[in-house]
Every structure is written in C-alpha cells, then in structure tokens.
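sanity check this record:
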Amino acid sequence: MKSASVSHLVGDSADDASTLSQEVAFEMLSCRRRRYVIHCLKQRGGAVELRDLVTQVAAWENEVAPEVVTYEQRMRVYTALRQSHLPKLDDGGIVTFEEHRGTIALTDAAAELEVYLDVVPHEDIPWSKYYAGLGILSLGFVGTLWIGLPPFSFVAPLGGALLVTLLFTISAAFHVRYDRRMRLGGDSEPPVAEVEP
C-alpha cells in the first residue's frame, strides 16, 4: 500500500532508498500508538496479524492483560490503526501493511529508527544534559582539588580521580540499564514517555 509520496520521505536514489529523514522518523515516533505498533512488531520478530496487534496495543493502552481487553477497547484501536496509523507507517516506509491479508511487517528501514529514540519521561532530563552537568560538576571538583580549597584540600588527588571515575562509571551503568528498559521492542511493556527530537 505504498503511496507515491514515499520518495520524499525516504531517499530518492537506490543507494539511500532505505534511509529515513530525521523529520519522518520523528513524525513516525511522535504518536504513542505508532510506537506501540513498532514495539509489538519488534517483540514478535517483525510481523504480526492485525487482530493480534490490535489486541496487544489495546491491552497496553488500557493497562490490562490482552485476555481481558473488551470489544469496545479493541474496536477503538482497530479503527485508529486501520484508518490512520498503519497507512501512515506504511507510507513512511516503516511497515508494510497488507490490508487484504490483515498482516503488518516491519521493513528494513525500521531499524534506522533506533538512532532517533531518545525517550525521556516528563519528570526526567535528557541523558545528554545529565552528562553535561556531571562533567561541569566534576571539572569544578577537580579545579578545587588542584587549587587546594578547603575542605577539598584534604582529599588526595588519586582519591579525587577515583571519585570522579566512579561517578561516571555508575552513571553509565545506570544509563545502559535505563536504555534497555526504554527501548522499543524490548521484553517489557513499551515506554510511555514522549520522544524528544
């Protein structure tokens, strides 16, 4: 169900035919329901039947098990996916939606979305800002050690270096764990936060 408008969404030449533009990637990821679709497809190996996809998305949206999703919940999701979100993802080159067969599959271009996934809960700050702040604090700490201002003058240089290294190592370990939890297609439920452009 590819439309003629796909050429402006993905690369025009044969070499970059699967390259998504940043604008298109963020448009595809901007909607929670579309992220749920991608998450489900990634979890299930890249292809799924429409009825199974609808049930799983409805379960996530209503925070219930798939077995207890009601007919009304399913129909709301079905209508939105079939009329809007799946055609949009298909036009964007992220999925192939075979409406007559009722199947949806991820395309190779879907793997490129990972580059744009910086999922940030509303209460949190982006990791880039966190590391910038940690770097500034570390520089200030090392500067006061070097100048010898009390009470930092009592800290040995090796102890200060060890403390800074430990802070960055603990932060990086936590970041890796956080990224695994917030990744589309992971083992857990899909991340519900907004995607930051």
In short: Strands lie at 47-49, 95-98, 103-106, 119-120, 194-195. Residues 1-17, 193-197 have pLDDT under 50 and may be disordered. Residues 115 and 160 are 35 Å apart (CA to CA). The chain is about 55% helix and 10% strand.
